[in-house]
Amino acid sequence: MKAHPSLSSRFSTGRVAVLTVLILVSGLLVARAAISGAPRQASAPENAAGLLEGFRHVEVASVSDALEQLTGRKMYMTHRMRPIFPTKFAGHAVTVLLKKENNNDPNALNGMLTAIDQGAKDSVYVMVVEDGADIAGMGGLMGTAMYSRGYAGAVIDGGVRDVAYLKKIGFPVYALGIVPSTSIHHYRFGGSNIPVTCDGVEVKPGDIITADQDGVVVVPKVEAGKVLELAQEMDFKEHSMYAYIEKLKSIEEAVKKFGRL
After folding, report:
1. Which residue, 42, 135, 138, 221, has most beta carbons within 10 Å?
2. Count of CA atoms in the C-beta half-sphere (13 A) of 90
3. What pLDDT digit, counting tens, does each position of 21-62 carry?
4. What is the pLDDT of residue 76?
């Protein structure tokens, strides 16, 4: 009489068959997803947040060099644009323009307040005060509003005041100088979230503003990904060179090896 296979061997054979089918089905699904160009899991906000995080950890000098190399444009602000305390930040530009105009209108500057209250977390308030090097474009009250809304910082093509309080709350501001003056009755709101020229550099709404102790750089949002990638590469080379220079006591040899200066 022919022997029958045991129950355990039949079960093992069945299990192998099921696993084989599952593997084949999984392979077909993966192939189908690849062919159809299935989207990545990361959403746009996560990508935007990742860009900002990257710019927060790369040196502004490298960002400036990367921009000039990729676009041929100098997107850094001048030596006049200085921080009220040492800082480093990156965020998306919210732009505001103040036009010089003597007036008695109590509502002349309301638009700049609305712009602050509409700004999202990680914004950078970029204000241009027309011919305003000796006019405070912002102070403690505006700084407190930005701080409470999670702004990354502010860049003022004009002056800043209430510096002691801004330092107390730790809100970073770059400005052309520290002055006690006011813009009230001397300026009128000229628009928000419009292209402006801040200390000689074009800034559009949503551009990335990155700043550290070397200064302020504007990264056009359409170039941000490529600029960050090259700036990170430049940072890596430069940081690798320090130990190499110390060891060989030669900057020429380091430049030959890494191609970065």
Report:
1. 138
2. 24
3. 444 444 433 334 333 333 333 333 348 888 999 999 999 999
4. 98
**216 three-class SS:** strand
Secondary structure of residue 137 in the 3-state scheme:
strand
- Residue of 186, 174, 206, 187 lying closest to 95 (CA atoms): 206
- One-letter amino acid at 244 equals Y
- Per residue in 200-219, pLDDT (tens digit) is 999 999 999 999 999 999 99
Q: Which residues contact 75 (CB under 8 A, 6 or more apart)?
A: 64, 67, 68, 201, 217, 218, 219, 220
Torsion of CA 231, 197, 155, 62, to 10 degrees: 10
Distances (CA, A) of 86 to 13, 16, 124, 173, 174: 70, 65, 16, 10, 10
Q: Enumerate residues 6+ apart whose C-beta is below 8 A from 59.
A: 212, 214, 231, 235, 238
Tokens of 261: 């200066």
Query: Rounded to an integer, what distance in angstroms lies between the CA atom of residue 135 and that of residue 113?
Result: 17
- Reading the block at residue 63, the tokens are 């960002």
Indicate the burial class of 137 (C-beta count within 10 angstroms; 0-12, 13-18, 19 or more).
buried
- Distances from the Cα of 129 to the Cα of 49, 126, 158, 248, angstroms: 30, 10, 5, 50
Main-chain dihedrals φ then ψ at residue 107, nearest 5 degrees: -105, 10
What domains, with CATH codes, occur in the chain?
78-218 (3.50.30.40)
Cα separation of 179 and 188, whole Å?
Answer: 19
Neighbours of 253 (CB within 10 A): 14
